[in-house]
Amino acid sequence: MRKEARRGKVLVSGLIVLFCAPVTLSGDERTWIYAVLIYTGCSVAFACLVVIMWSDPGVVKRSPERCFPQPKSIIEALSESKGVNKIQGNVKVGEHVFCGRCLVWRPAGTKVHHCSICNRCVYGFDHHCGVFGRCIAAGNIRPFGLIIMMGFATFWTWLVFLSSELLWDLGFQGGYGEVIASVALATFCTWLLLLIIVKACCVCPHKQ
Ligand SMILES: [Zn+2]
Ligand SMILES: [Zn+2]
């Protein structure tokens, strides 16, 4: 997971440098609006990264009240020396569910799932993110959504800026034609990237 978390930090920091470098180096007054948008997007994304990395995703905390009394079937399985890893599934007792892997009672009436990578139960679990090395759950799903939105929005703005610079150098200087061509090219590339990412994603196999 540490390797995963490092990957996430390097990826976001690398993208921030990649997006900020051209507008910073350009120093062109004509494109100041792109600089403002890109710096804003990167600042928000960085703040989201900090929250995702260092906040509690919503782990069901272990405590004597949360762990005991254990259901009979769990006590039997443990006494037979099956070991915690051999106990499969959850034990339902009335309204309450006991997780047979991390051995805690899940609070009744809440959406809790077990993450098989972190080996813990988490409130509002959505998936385990392989990029950030964190469960994405109730505590961090908003900054996670925002960092993705900022990523695409900043990527799009960065492409519009690059297209505009390219068209300017090719002689299409000023006018609506240059703006429309830049926006169209950037939108097409962003849509293509989005399509590739959606195709590559699948249902989280770690949700139990
Ligand atoms: Zn669990
Ligand atoms: Zn996890």
From TrEMBL:
One of its GO terms (molecular function) is protein-cysteine S-palmitoyltransferase activity. Residues 1-26 form the signal peptide. Keywords: Acyltransferase, Membrane, Signal, Transferase, Transmembrane, Transmembrane helix. The keyword GTP-binding does not apply. It comes from the Eukaryota. Residues 94-198 form the Palmitoyltransferase DHHC domain. Coiled coil: none annotated. It is found in: Membrane. It catalyses: L-cysteinyl-[protein] + hexadecanoyl-CoA = S-hexadecanoyl-L-cysteinyl-[protein] + CoA. GO terms for cellular component: endoplasmic reticulum; Golgi apparatus; membrane. This is Palmitoyltransferase. It comes from Emiliania huxleyi (strain CCMP1516).
